[in-house]
Amino acid sequence: MIILKSHYEIEQIRKSCQIVASILNVLKKTIEPGITCYELNELAEKLIAQKGASPAFKGYRGFPTALCTSVNDQIVHGIPDGRRLKEGDIVSLDLGVELSGYFGDCAITVAVGKIHEEAERLLKVTEASLYLGIKQAVVDNRLFDISYAVQSWVEENGFSVVRDFVGHGIGSGLHEEPQVPNFGIPHQGPCLKEGMVLALEPMVNAGSFKIKILADGWTAVTADGSLSAHFEHTIAITSNGPEILSKLD
Q1: What is the CATH number of domain 7-242?
Q2: Domain extent listing, the chain
Q3: What is the pLDDT of residue 249?
Q4: The predicted structure's pLDDT at residue 37
């Protein structure tokens, strides 16, 4: 069942999303060659506590940390450890928080120092695909109009969208209906209605869309070792079009 949110609920979700966005902004500015993923997680946890919120991911189905850090060929759900980021890496930061019973979720992929031209292009195409998907999140469109907008742009640019992980509804639960794939046939799926709140999150691989899960049971990597990027926003569907709740005011 897809839960339509009231104006009050959307405002509560926005508060959580703004916390996430502000923390990701700090982490992005902190990243430089030599910093460890564990240090980024420690900073994220400290900032979450300062905001009076709770980490949404830590303990969720056994996940051990507040922040997901996915480096280079890691797609999503990377567990922060003592790995030191180096010049030329890309790292995806995925963060969620809960505040007063409502969740916010957002992700960015960040360059570590100077990166290769193809890696830079991957980041730009992936982030652009997110905004093209958001543009389709309007009342009376269909859910897969979002999916098709992401997929068609990504594939036009020679990359591939991950099939195994998808976006989702969000609100008083971290993951709610509907699932929002980044691939699909346009004009299909549930009709989009005012009050839907969705976390849209293209995950894009430079090579094949196929994945593998590492021995930790969480970290997803590209099957062919190619780079992967991930961007995510939480949005509300309104009568005036899509509203990005996780974009800093």
Answers
A1: 3.90.230.10
A2: 7-242
A3: 72
A4: 98
